[in-house]
Request: fold
Amino acid sequence: MAGPAPEPIAAPPQRTPPQAPDAEPTQTTGPSPAYLALARLGRDDHRLGLSAHDCTTLEPLAAQWLDRGVTTDYLTSTLTAGLPAQIDSPVGLLRRRLIDKLPPRLPATPSTPADTPAPTRRLLVECTDCGRPGPPEALPDGLCHPCHTTHSAGGPPSPDPTQIAAVKAHMANLRDLPKPV
Reply:
């Protein structure tokens, strides 16, 4: 004799936690620059083809490089430089290189001791008349003190007639030179 069939037991309703009305849905970010640099190695050199798991495994090591201010191009060139002809384990080779060739951590800002002044470049100019070198402050109008007093006392010196003739002859020679076509 068969009795009445037992009624199915209903599962209690599942409650989802209430979500704040202005909460944004979480966005999945793409792969990190370190992961992408490792993934591209196989495209640059077929001997360094890595699986997604290999890239995920090596990603923290490559991220250390990027945290130290290294660009992905520098990381890639360092990892691919001087590769052997045959690579049996690309992940092993790259792990070793990422550990062994890790660059030093550089300070964020260049530190200069406070008591040592920064070196300054000393600029020297020449007198336009006699060619005597000196600091720019000592050569007002481009002339040293002796040349300045000579020019300001008697005005500009009048040119010698032989100098005028020499300049005219030189200009005539320049005009007679063949002109480029």
